[in-house]
Design a protein that fits this description.
Blueprint: H1 10-42, H2 58-88, H3 106-138, H4 142-147, H5 150-157, H6 159-177, H7 184-197, H8 200-203, H9 206-209, H10 213-242, H11 248-277, H12 283-286, H13 288-319, H14 323-348, H15 361-366, H16 376-381, H17 387-409, H18 416-433, H19 436-440, H20 445-465, H21 468-475, H22 487-495, H23 498-503, H24 506-521, H25 525-531, H26 533-555, H27 566-588, H28 596-601, H29 610-624, H30 626-659, H31 666-683
Helix pairs in contact: 1-2, 1-3, 1-10, 1-14, 2-3, 2-7, 2-10, 2-14, 3-6, 5-6, 6-7, 10-11, 10-14, 11-13, 13-14, 17-18, 17-21, 18-20, 20-26, 20-29, 24-26, 24-27, 25-26, 27-29, 27-30
Length: 687
Amino acid sequence: MSTQGSPDVEPDVSRAALGVLRAAVITVAACGAVLVGGLVLGGSVTEKVIPGLGDAGVLTRWGLPASRAAMDLLSALTVGALIAAAALLPIQSPAKGERGAGRLSKDAIGYLHAASWLAAVWAAAAAATLVFTVADVLGQPVEQVVTGSELSSYVGSLPQGTALMIVVLLAVVVALLARTTTTPAAAFGLLALAGIALLPAPLTGHSASAANHTVATTGVALHVAAVAPWVGGLAVVGVHALLRRDRLPVMADRFSRMALWCYVVVGASGLVNVIARLPDPVEMVETDYGRLALGKIAAFALLGWFGWWHRTRTLPAVEAGRPWSFARLASVEAAVMGAAMGLAVALARTAPPAPAEPESPVKALLGYEMPPQINPARLATLWQLDLLFVVLVIALGGLYLAAVVRLRRRGDSWPLGRTAAWLIGLVTIVAVTETGVAKYAPILFSVHMAQHMVLNMLAPIFLVLGAPVTLALRALKPARIRGDRGPREWLTAMLHSRYAAVIAHPAVATFIFVVSTFALYFTPLFESAMRNHLGHMAMSLHFLIAGSLFFWVLLGVDPAPKKLPYPGRLLLLFVTMPFHAFFGIALMNLGEPLARGWYAAVDAPWGTTILKDQHTGGAIAWGFGEVPTFLVLIVLAVQWYLDDQRQARRLDRKADRAAAPGGRSEDDELAAYNARLARLAERDKPE
């Protein structure tokens, strides 16, 4: 449904864009004032120029943090406008006689157009940050960088340059597509794309080089992913209140619930980041970095008070028809948020305290010192925190149990075996991502392979048997407004989407499950993933997701776009599992080690040779396949038996109805109905 040139939409579009830009002015002013103070306090703009060393100049010292702050603010406002269009504003039901799903409202389309303009400026700010970063790293004035060849070579050679270039490209794509988007699904897709664009820049900063970089990297990702919708959402809802638009109570209520979770995630991830960079609490008051962190903590506490006031005072006032009460407080809250973001940029430009003792080369690569010689006891007791999987397991476990409790409270049952299977799956994830297995996995290929097998071929079986999609469909409540999309409607739409039909096709799921393993280990991609913590996280998540997708298709507990008959499932299992045996045999026959550079750098003094350890890893891959195959065969046999029992009971009921006096079978009823339709069609033929 196109809206280009529609006279009743254009005024809404211009008012939305103008309102968002007004909200941005308040936030930018507060951010700029605090940023200047933070830069002066942190000393990043008052560094002493050492003769003989390159100096980027005053323009770069001030321009880099200013462009970075602008990039952060504009990214948050872009995300906020997209959230308003995709989630905060209700979706309109189709017009009478119109086919298809719900459609975006005029206000939602207006916010999409505002997001287009904001994303375009976001891309420009990211490009400016890229130029200033090159000048800062090379110690050359901006004019020399722009006119020389350093810019193009820097983008492809250093992580910061590549990350900023990705941000520019993604922001441009959002800006272009937001101008023509008119459907809820497309708006949600743009929101996901903008969310991805938030991450590259902060993940290549201090977090990548922190002592505890495995924790710091995940903490930064969670922090940024929660801050942007919180800040941007507040600005857009405040604009909506100022413009006195319809649906403000619904929009404010949805934002308040989202903001509560954002606040929790921001607080937890911020605490993790501070601990990772300042392990000694005394550094909080004795260092410039610590004092700036304390200022950010104070702003965070103040924002918590604002959130409490919104939930207890302004939301009831909005319901009573007084939108200005929300707008006034939101303006002040936006200023505090801008100040917090200014402090965040100042922190990014301020070097954390140097470690008391120089780091060893192994700790610089792993984030921790070389552990002692491996044995079963140390695999179980030397715990290694992986924040990504801690958050994932807590979220998945908490949501699942909350859904079960909701069903029980309304009198519905849920099989205990499914709950047990889900929890066992989560325990297996913890067993290989938080224990000594995770500590030794980057050092020994054999331990890494055991971790891979569990994440890819064991944990997914239990997670799939937990039937989380079925539980969600039963526990989630329908949207309150007719035609709108809540979590239940979005989940249903995803299950019926063309993307789900393609990705969940047995051939596609099997291809991903099998081919991605060979493509990872027998190409340079494996060493790149081991050297970069982001790559290592992506690799572990891929193992878990690819395995879950394959066993979802194979075991078929939850609804799926295409379900195989049981003979087809057995055939798929017996065709697929030998590939893992072939993979293990290929590893055992290697003549040269995989990722030689990485394993040579972290080679343990107590370990065996790299090649022999990889042969052991191949034996693990070859032998481990028997375990999931045996489990899946048992599950399929039980499912097949129960399905036959259901079919037999259905046939018995049909036979009982047919044998009853005056009863007719379903086939007889269908034949009679078709005969009646044929007679009506014959009668209606023209003579």
